[in-house]
Amino acid sequence: MLLFKKDFFADSKIKWKKINDKIFSNYLKKNLKISQNDSLQIYKNLGLEKNSNNFKIFCKKKIYLLKCVELKNSKKRSEIKNIIILLNWLKKNKSLVPNPIFFKDGNYSINFRERNLFLSNYMRGNHFKGEKEEFNNVVKNICFTTKLLKKYRYKRNLKLHNISVSHLNKIIILMNKNKKRWINFFGKKKSKYLEKYWWKINDIILNLRSINYENKKLEVVHIDIHPHNIITRGNKFIGFLDSESWMLSSVQEAFAYGGFKLCRQVILNNRSQKVVSSIGNEYINLITKYYDKNLDFNKKILLLCEKVILERIVNIFKFNLLNNNKKWNKLLPVLLEHLDEARIIFNNYK
User: Fold this and answer.
1) Which domain holds residue 25?
2) Of 87, 250, 313, 315, which sits most exposed with the smallest number of CB within 10 A?
3) Is 4 part of a structural domain of the chain?
4) DSSP label at 223?
5) How confident is the prediction along the chain (350 residues), in pLDDT tens digits per residue?
6) Which one-letter DSSP state was computed for residue 2?
7) Is 195 exposed, middle or buried (0-12, 13-18, 19+ CB in 10 A)?
8) Sign of the four-CA dihedral 93, 218, 252, 49
9) Residues 60 and 81 occupy one common structural domain
10) Which residues on neighbouring strands pair with residue 65, listed in sequence order?
């Protein structure tokens, strides 16, 4: 089995597609500080996003990033408001995050087609490529911002990320009871692949019992660091994307998964056995240097990384079991192989 194959996130070029939606365009003109006669061009980001979309807006020689988030309930509107407050605080404290911009009515967000729209500056650059100097700069900035967030006064206002294991276990049990339906969910080929990893999934659940989640201290951290949520230019860190992923969660889990995704990109970019065997240790050394020299992963960085990967696998299970939604099934083999890749990256941790 060939591991470390290039996937969607391996492409560092940011891809946009121009859209022609007169109603959307006129609505933006009405709410931006421009006249109806001004030229406005809208480009949709071609990324993989579950509940939101990013748009690049060209207007009066300026470029903006417009984030559109599904408004499922009033709680979601409150979450967005608190994210904007956080971004303003981070910007004030020299963290490289998108800078929220007011609409014409003086608010940071507006509603359109059951979605909440908020505007920020557009950060020019590319997604994380996997260069070694770039890797060092990105990890350094992740550590700086995560450390800075310990001082944030309103952390309890942010969304709480569920890090417990019980909800994972329930879905695994349910999937086990529904094995006869796997072919209907995933097709014959993917079902066989899942069967191959099923022992591993159950082994991870068993090993996670050794972690006492009741005593885990939660901090504000970006829970979904990966190449497409990082903007760089010339190996220099430019900023974070996906502002909704700043949540109250486990820093160690976020560092474990984010580290895996960044290390994986470095391996794809270098294709050297030396890099494969050393990049995990290099990442840990950077984290302890720039975040906390006393940070103790208790040699569980691999298990924590496996847990976060498993969370994403379980989400695919849930979509199929509860909603008969097969949209994300194409990612199942990729995520299963991530379990093997994580072991290769972090198994040499000393």
Assistant:
1) 14-123
2) 315
3) no
4) S
5) 589 998 877 888 888 999 999 999 989 989 987 766 778 999 998 876 654 588 999 987 889 999 988 876 677 788 889 999 999 999 999 999 999 999 999 999 998 988 889 999 999 999 999 999 999 999 999 999 999 999 999 999 999 998 989 999 999 999 999 999 999 999 999 999 999 999 999 999 999 987 776 657 899 999 999 999 999 999 999 999 999 999 999 999 999 999 999 999 999 999 888 899 999 999 999 999 999 888 776 578 999 999 999 999 999 999 999 999 999 999 999 999 999 999 999 985 44
6) -
7) exposed
8) negative
9) yes
10) 56, 120
Domain total for the chain?
2
Rounded CA separation 128/236 (Å)? 10
Q: Are residues 341 and 193 in the same domain?
A: yes
Count Cβ atoms within 10 A of the Cβ of residue 285 and give its class: 0-12 exposed, 13-18 middle, 19 or more buried. Answer: exposed
- Report how far residue 79's alpha carbon sits from residue 132's, in angstroms, rounded to the nearest whole number: 36
pTM over 0.90: yes
Query: What is the Cα–Cα distance from 102 to 286, expressed in whole angstroms?
Result: 37
- The amino acid at 174: L
Same domain for 65 and 197, yes or no, is no
List the structure tokens of 91.
């910007």
Token duo for residue 257: 């998964």
Query: Which residue in the block uniquely carries the two structure tokens 């276990």?
Result: 169
Give the C-alpha separation, 334 to 330, whole Å. 8
From the list 206, 210, 202, the residue with the least C-alpha distance to 173 is 202
